[in-house]
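Discrete fold record:
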Amino acid sequence: MTFKQAARLAVFVLIAGRASVLPAQAPVAPAPAPAASAAAQPAPPRTGEEIYRAACITCHAADGKGSPRSVVGFEAPLPDFTDCGFASGEPDPDWFAVVHEGGPVRGLDRHMPAFGSALSEPEITLAVSHLRTFCAEPAWPRGDLNFPRAFFTEKAFPENEAVWTTTFTGGDSKSVGNSLVYERRFGVRNQVELKAPIDFRQDDTQTWTRGLGDLAIAFKRALYSSIETGRIAAAGVEVILPTGKENLGLGNGYTVFEPFAMWGQVLPRNSFLQMHGGVELPTDTTQGTREVFLRTTAGTTVAQDRGFGRAWSPQFEVLWARPEGGPSEWDVVPQLQITLSKLQHVMVAGGVRIPVTQRRDRDTQLLVYLLWDWFDGGFFEFWR
């Protein structure tokens, strides 16, 4: 063995010996996991359709027309969401209340369960938005634009209502005026209205007379509505017929045509603004006087029980009218509307009409009305 070979052997032995006393090498640690793995990431937000399919499809079916009784297992009829007259007419808060609290919150069937603990409020809102898509005709005005009814400012929203209004007037010539209004919606945007006044008046001899006043028929059409802008506009015409007894102070004795226009606007915090203007055109100008008018009301709605209970709608009307050749007449009408039934299809309101100008010739009036939205159901239904 040569010297070089011996040296190489010595170096090999030395390296091998040192390697034998070193500690065993620790296993290589895996690379650190990402801060949040794909599995740990929160699920992407579900769409309204996905929420509907997960929570609603069993009873209400994929097409929104309702599943057959053999599937749901109960006899109560299910709503048809494709019926635009039904689906578009209800405002979002009513849909939200029924989904969140269940059918009984609006006097509906107990088979509609409460999803308030299973779905978040944003998810319920998305599900309600999906329900709206079952109506294939977007021209139908949405129920969110159907603002509370005022005493004098007509609504732009076409409605199915019956309203009984009573007006008490004091002063030297006392009177009790009653008006029955029947409104019926037809087509997508149209409404016809019939008004029958039944008045009681006291004459100068303190004698009371009573009878039917001048009947009126009106037509209106919603010309524009947008849920995105929260705005609705309508126009129409009313014809007042000389059916009352003029000699008893229960009628004009001539026909009056009244073209008009209405406008409504959603405001923040469940508030609203409505306007109604027009002109009265008598056929007999020797007895009647042309008059222009503008009525404006602003109000808000507050609901009890976290927004799911009875609704209270305070409103304030400002009335302006100017007879041809005469001074302007101003009135204010503070008022309050309250829903009575759970479905909120029966309401009552009270208010006071206070003259601001020409107070010597015009007396303060007390007003009340009872309103029934007959399209939603019978008067005695949905109270408990």
User: Anything to note?
Assistant: Helices lie at 3-21, 48-55, 57-60, 69-72, 84-87, 92-101, 121-132, 304-307. The chain is about 15% helix and 35% strand. Residues 1-31 have pLDDT under 50 and may be disordered. The longest helix spans residues 3-21.
